Amino acid sequence: AYFSNISKLLGEGEDSVPQTMTMATIDYMAPEYGSEGIVSAKCDIYSYGVLLMETFTRKRLTDEMFTGEMSLRRWVKESLPHGLTEVVAANLVREERAFFAKMDCILSIMDLALDCCMESPDKRINMTDAAAKLKKIKVMFLDDAAATS
User: Would 138 be classed as within a structural domain?
Assistant: First the structure.
């Protein structure tokens, strides 16, 4: 997967916390970057979580439905686990043989996305753990899909 990895441009390592006055699209950046200009690897993981949610919901942060207190993150969080079919792109949740395996996989991915987008940088998962979780989700999906075939 491709990551902007803005933290590597301005500092080294997971714990690097350089500051910058450069502002990007606030919606896609971690709250601490938008409000304080702090850049770290934790900002990258936040953006990755947003990317995951956008990919599977087919909604952008700038969608007109996200106004006031409602955000993509909140919409996804409030849908889990029972309303998942309401937020996931319709073409991903068609009834088919591997439907339940697919829904378990998407639920796990949405949980991961929310772990990436925690408000506090200290509570966010790191990229190494996120990649490991994605690999486990893939293996679980392939095993479950094969069992239903």
Answer: yes
